Amino acid sequence: MSRVVELTKFNQLEFHHTLARGYVIVYRGLLRDWPAIKRWNSEYFQDKFPQIDVVIKFFDANGVRFEQAKMYRYLEILHAYKKGEMGNNIPYCHDIPIFLQAQKLLNDVSDFPLTILPKLYRNEWWKFAQFFMSPAGAITPLHFDTLRTNNLFFQIKGSKRFSFIPWEERAACSRRGWRWFEYNPEVQNVSEIANINKSTIEVHQGDILIMPAGMLHHVRTLTDSISFNVDFHTRASAIVSFKSIKEKMPRENLYYNWLSLCGLLGLMKRESFFEKYRPYLNYIS
Protein backbone atom coordinates (compact mmCIF):
# COMPACT_ATOMS: atom_id res chain seq x y z
CA MET A 1 0.00 0.00 0.00
CA SER A 2 1.44 3.37 -1.02
CA ARG A 3 2.22 5.76 1.83
CA VAL A 4 2.50 8.79 -0.48
CA VAL A 5 -0.15 11.42 -1.22
CA GLU A 6 0.30 13.85 -4.14
CA LEU A 7 -1.42 17.25 -4.01
CA THR A 8 -1.32 20.52 -5.94
CA LYS A 9 -2.85 22.85 -3.34
CA PHE A 10 -2.22 23.27 0.37
CA ASN A 11 -5.02 22.80 2.87
CA GLN A 12 -4.11 23.04 6.55
CA LEU A 13 -6.56 20.46 7.89
CA GLU A 14 -5.77 18.01 5.10
CA PHE A 15 -2.04 18.43 5.73
CA HIS A 16 -2.21 17.71 9.47
CA HIS A 17 -4.57 14.78 9.00
CA THR A 18 -2.40 13.19 6.31
CA LEU A 19 0.88 13.66 8.20
CA ALA A 20 -0.65 12.30 11.43
CA ARG A 21 -1.58 9.11 9.55
CA GLY A 22 2.10 8.59 8.71
CA TYR A 23 1.87 9.47 5.02
CA VAL A 24 4.44 11.28 2.90
CA ILE A 25 3.01 14.34 1.12
CA VAL A 26 4.25 15.77 -2.19
CA TYR A 27 2.98 19.20 -3.26
CA ARG A 28 3.53 19.52 -6.99
CA GLY A 29 4.80 22.83 -8.35
CA LEU A 30 4.31 24.89 -5.20
CA LEU A 31 7.74 26.54 -5.68
CA ARG A 32 7.57 27.07 -9.45
CA ASP A 33 7.67 30.88 -9.16
CA TRP A 34 10.68 31.05 -6.83
CA PRO A 35 13.66 32.93 -8.32
CA ALA A 36 15.89 30.09 -7.11
CA ILE A 37 14.30 27.77 -9.67
CA LYS A 38 15.93 29.81 -12.45
CA ARG A 39 19.06 31.05 -10.68
CA TRP A 40 20.49 28.20 -8.64
CA ASN A 41 23.07 26.12 -10.45
CA SER A 42 26.78 25.36 -10.07
CA GLU A 43 27.82 28.46 -12.00
CA TYR A 44 25.71 30.68 -9.74
CA PHE A 45 27.28 29.33 -6.57
CA GLN A 46 30.77 29.44 -8.08
CA ASP A 47 30.30 33.09 -9.04
CA LYS A 48 28.38 34.40 -6.02
CA PHE A 49 29.16 32.13 -3.05
CA PRO A 50 32.45 30.24 -3.60
CA GLN A 51 33.56 30.56 0.05
CA ILE A 52 30.59 28.82 1.68
CA ASP A 53 31.76 26.03 3.99
CA VAL A 54 30.47 22.63 2.86
CA VAL A 55 30.72 18.97 3.79
CA ILE A 56 31.28 16.56 0.91
CA LYS A 57 30.02 13.03 1.46
CA PHE A 58 31.18 9.99 -0.47
CA PHE A 59 28.98 6.91 -0.01
CA ASP A 60 30.54 3.53 -0.77
CA ALA A 61 30.50 -0.09 0.38
CA ASN A 62 32.55 0.82 3.46
CA GLY A 63 30.10 3.47 4.66
CA VAL A 64 30.32 7.24 4.45
CA ARG A 65 33.47 9.31 4.04
CA PHE A 66 33.42 13.05 4.81
CA GLU A 67 35.51 15.92 3.54
CA GLN A 68 35.33 19.52 4.80
CA ALA A 69 35.77 22.03 1.98
CA LYS A 70 34.67 25.32 0.45
CA MET A 71 31.96 25.51 -2.18
CA TYR A 72 34.45 26.27 -4.95
CA ARG A 73 36.41 23.13 -4.03
CA TYR A 74 33.29 20.99 -4.11
CA LEU A 75 32.44 22.36 -7.55
CA GLU A 76 35.97 21.50 -8.75
CA ILE A 77 35.50 17.93 -7.51
CA LEU A 78 32.04 17.81 -9.08
CA HIS A 79 33.47 18.94 -12.42
CA ALA A 80 36.21 16.30 -12.20
CA TYR A 81 33.62 13.62 -11.48
CA LYS A 82 31.56 14.64 -14.51
CA LYS A 83 34.69 14.42 -16.68
CA GLY A 84 35.12 10.81 -15.54
CA GLU A 85 38.22 11.50 -13.44
CA MET A 86 36.93 10.09 -10.13
CA GLY A 87 35.53 6.70 -11.03
CA ASN A 88 32.53 5.81 -8.88
CA ASN A 89 33.36 8.28 -6.10
CA ILE A 90 30.26 10.43 -6.46
CA PRO A 91 30.64 13.71 -4.51
CA TYR A 92 27.55 14.79 -2.57
CA CYS A 93 27.34 18.23 -0.95
CA HIS A 94 25.28 17.44 2.13
CA ASP A 95 23.58 19.08 5.14
CA ILE A 96 24.88 22.65 4.79
CA PRO A 97 23.21 25.44 6.86
CA ILE A 98 23.23 27.53 3.72
CA PHE A 99 21.22 30.61 4.70
CA LEU A 100 23.19 31.09 7.92
CA GLN A 101 26.30 31.49 5.77
CA ALA A 102 24.74 33.46 2.90
CA GLN A 103 21.58 35.33 3.85
CA LYS A 104 21.57 36.98 0.40
CA LEU A 105 20.28 33.64 -0.90
CA LEU A 106 16.99 34.42 0.85
CA ASN A 107 16.34 36.86 -2.01
CA ASP A 108 15.93 33.77 -4.20
CA VAL A 109 13.14 32.17 -2.19
CA SER A 110 9.53 33.26 -1.82
CA ASP A 111 6.48 32.26 0.16
CA PHE A 112 5.38 28.75 1.03
CA PRO A 113 2.76 27.50 3.53
CA LEU A 114 4.58 28.42 6.75
CA THR A 115 1.86 26.82 8.82
CA ILE A 116 3.41 23.47 7.90
CA LEU A 117 5.91 24.34 10.63
CA PRO A 118 5.21 24.73 14.36
CA LYS A 119 5.57 28.30 15.65
CA LEU A 120 8.97 27.53 17.17
CA TYR A 121 10.47 27.26 13.67
CA ARG A 122 8.15 29.47 11.68
CA ASN A 123 9.37 33.09 11.94
CA GLU A 124 12.99 32.35 10.98
CA TRP A 125 12.57 28.98 9.32
CA TRP A 126 15.62 29.61 7.13
CA LYS A 127 17.92 29.29 10.13
CA PHE A 128 17.05 25.58 10.26
CA ALA A 129 17.53 24.89 6.54
CA GLN A 130 20.18 22.47 5.26
CA PHE A 131 21.36 22.46 1.65
CA PHE A 132 22.12 19.59 -0.77
CA MET A 133 23.78 19.49 -4.19
CA SER A 134 24.42 16.25 -6.07
CA PRO A 135 25.08 14.95 -9.59
CA ALA A 136 22.93 12.39 -11.37
CA GLY A 137 23.56 8.94 -9.93
CA ALA A 138 24.24 10.04 -6.34
CA ILE A 139 22.58 7.81 -3.76
CA THR A 140 21.86 8.20 -0.07
CA PRO A 141 21.34 4.69 1.34
CA LEU A 142 18.28 3.77 3.37
CA HIS A 143 18.13 5.73 6.63
CA PHE A 144 15.91 7.87 8.81
CA ASP A 145 16.57 11.46 9.87
CA THR A 146 18.82 11.29 12.88
CA LEU A 147 16.56 13.02 15.45
CA ARG A 148 13.44 11.25 14.14
CA THR A 149 12.13 14.62 13.05
CA ASN A 150 9.61 15.43 10.36
CA ASN A 151 11.30 16.56 7.14
CA LEU A 152 10.17 19.49 4.97
CA PHE A 153 12.05 19.15 1.67
CA PHE A 154 12.30 21.73 -1.14
CA GLN A 155 13.39 20.52 -4.60
CA ILE A 156 14.94 23.49 -6.42
CA LYS A 157 16.74 21.90 -9.40
CA GLY A 158 16.57 18.52 -11.06
CA SER A 159 14.81 15.37 -9.92
CA LYS A 160 15.19 12.75 -7.20
CA ARG A 161 13.58 9.40 -6.53
CA PHE A 162 12.61 8.65 -2.94
CA SER A 163 11.82 5.14 -1.71
CA PHE A 164 10.02 5.02 1.65
CA ILE A 165 9.59 2.31 4.26
CA PRO A 166 7.54 2.96 7.42
CA TRP A 167 9.32 3.20 10.76
CA GLU A 168 7.48 0.18 12.16
CA GLU A 169 9.10 -2.04 9.48
CA ARG A 170 12.69 -1.08 10.30
CA ALA A 171 13.46 -4.49 11.85
CA ALA A 172 13.17 -6.11 8.41
CA CYS A 173 15.74 -3.77 6.84
CA SER A 174 19.02 -4.95 8.45
CA ARG A 175 19.90 -1.97 10.62
CA ARG A 176 23.50 -0.72 10.69
CA GLY A 177 24.37 1.59 13.58
CA TRP A 178 21.87 4.18 14.75
CA ARG A 179 20.09 5.25 11.56
CA TRP A 180 21.45 3.40 8.51
CA PHE A 181 20.18 0.17 6.94
CA GLU A 182 21.67 -2.46 4.64
CA TYR A 183 18.43 -3.03 2.76
CA ASN A 184 18.38 -1.48 -0.71
CA PRO A 185 14.82 -0.80 -1.95
CA GLU A 186 16.11 -0.67 -5.55
CA VAL A 187 17.51 -4.22 -5.45
CA GLN A 188 15.12 -6.73 -3.93
CA ASN A 189 13.89 -10.26 -4.39
CA VAL A 190 10.35 -11.60 -4.40
CA SER A 191 10.30 -12.41 -0.69
CA GLU A 192 11.40 -8.88 0.20
CA ILE A 193 8.66 -7.40 -1.98
CA ALA A 194 6.14 -9.48 -0.07
CA ASN A 195 7.45 -8.59 3.38
CA ILE A 196 8.36 -4.90 3.18
CA ASN A 197 5.86 -2.12 2.49
CA LYS A 198 7.76 0.17 0.12
CA SER A 199 6.51 3.33 -1.60
CA THR A 200 8.35 5.21 -4.33
CA ILE A 201 7.91 8.75 -5.66
CA GLU A 202 9.88 11.14 -7.86
CA VAL A 203 10.16 14.81 -6.93
CA HIS A 204 10.98 17.46 -9.51
CA GLN A 205 12.05 21.07 -9.38
CA GLY A 206 9.36 23.21 -7.81
CA ASP A 207 7.99 20.41 -5.62
CA ILE A 208 7.73 20.30 -1.82
CA LEU A 209 7.91 16.96 -0.03
CA ILE A 210 7.05 16.34 3.63
CA MET A 211 8.09 13.13 5.40
CA PRO A 212 6.58 12.14 8.76
CA ALA A 213 8.90 11.52 11.68
CA GLY A 214 10.83 8.26 11.52
CA MET A 215 10.08 7.47 7.87
CA LEU A 216 12.92 5.42 6.39
CA HIS A 217 14.01 6.73 2.99
CA HIS A 218 16.46 5.88 0.23
CA VAL A 219 17.26 8.69 -2.22
CA ARG A 220 18.61 8.53 -5.78
CA THR A 221 19.50 11.69 -7.70
CA LEU A 222 18.04 11.24 -11.18
CA THR A 223 19.37 14.47 -12.72
CA ASP A 224 21.82 17.04 -11.33
CA SER A 225 20.04 18.31 -8.27
CA ILE A 226 19.87 21.20 -5.78
CA SER A 227 17.58 21.12 -2.79
CA PHE A 228 17.29 22.02 0.87
CA ASN A 229 15.24 20.85 3.81
CA VAL A 230 14.09 21.78 7.30
CA ASP A 231 14.02 19.11 10.01
CA PHE A 232 11.32 19.93 12.54
CA HIS A 233 9.67 18.39 15.56
CA THR A 234 6.11 18.73 16.71
CA ARG A 235 5.36 18.16 20.38
CA ALA A 236 4.11 14.70 19.51
CA SER A 237 7.16 13.68 17.45
CA ALA A 238 9.58 15.06 20.06
CA ILE A 239 7.91 13.03 22.80
CA VAL A 240 7.81 9.87 20.67
CA SER A 241 11.50 10.28 19.81
CA PHE A 242 12.47 9.42 23.40
CA LYS A 243 11.13 5.90 22.90
CA SER A 244 14.27 5.32 20.86
CA ILE A 245 16.48 5.49 23.94
CA LYS A 246 16.13 1.71 24.20
CA GLU A 247 17.44 1.48 20.61
CA LYS A 248 20.68 3.19 21.63
CA MET A 249 19.84 6.68 20.41
CA PRO A 250 23.11 8.68 20.59
CA ARG A 251 23.48 11.01 23.56
CA GLU A 252 23.72 14.04 21.25
CA ASN A 253 20.35 13.14 19.73
CA LEU A 254 18.78 12.87 23.14
CA TYR A 255 20.08 16.35 23.96
CA TYR A 256 18.78 17.97 20.76
CA ASN A 257 15.41 16.29 21.13
CA TRP A 258 15.17 17.50 24.71
CA LEU A 259 15.97 21.05 23.51
CA SER A 260 13.29 20.75 20.84
CA LEU A 261 10.66 19.62 23.32
CA CYS A 262 11.54 22.47 25.71
CA GLY A 263 11.23 24.96 22.87
CA LEU A 264 7.94 23.54 21.63
CA LEU A 265 6.47 23.59 25.15
CA GLY A 266 7.50 27.21 25.64
CA LEU A 267 9.96 26.34 28.42
CA MET A 268 12.79 28.08 26.56
CA LYS A 269 12.87 31.33 24.61
CA ARG A 270 13.21 30.88 20.86
CA GLU A 271 16.56 32.73 20.74
CA SER A 272 18.00 30.61 23.54
CA PHE A 273 16.68 27.44 21.93
CA PHE A 274 18.30 28.15 18.58
CA GLU A 275 21.63 29.16 20.15
CA LYS A 276 21.83 25.72 21.77
CA TYR A 277 20.30 23.85 18.81
CA ARG A 278 22.46 25.43 16.11
CA PRO A 279 25.36 22.92 16.37
CA TYR A 280 22.93 20.22 15.21
CA LEU A 281 22.95 21.82 11.75
CA ASN A 282 26.59 20.74 11.44
CA TYR A 283 26.11 17.44 13.27
CA ILE A 284 27.28 14.44 11.24
CA SER A 285 25.87 11.06 12.14
CA-atom Rg in angstroms: 18 Å
> How is the CATH topology named?
Jelly Rolls
Q: Provide a count of the helices.
A: 10
Count of β-strands: 15
Broad structural category? alpha+beta
The H-and-E topology, N to C, reads as EHEHHEEHEHHEEEEEEHEEEEHHH
Strand content: 25-35%
Protein name: JmjC domain-containing protein
Domain JmjC: 101-249
InterPro entries: Cupin_8 (IPR041667), JmjC_dom (IPR003347)
Pfam family, one: Cupin_8
Description:
It is a single chain. The chain is an alpha+beta fold and 285 residues long. It has one domain: Jelly Rolls (Sandwich). It is built from ten helices and 15 strands. It has a nine-stranded mixed β-sheet. The protein has a four-stranded antiparallel β-sheet with strand order 7-14-9-12, with no helix packed on it. Strand 1, helix 1 and strand 2 form a beta-alpha-beta unit. Helix 8 runs antiparallel to helix 9 and helix 9 runs antiparallel to helix 10. The protein is globular. The protein starts with a strand and ends in an 8-residue tail after the last helix. The mean pLDDT is 94.
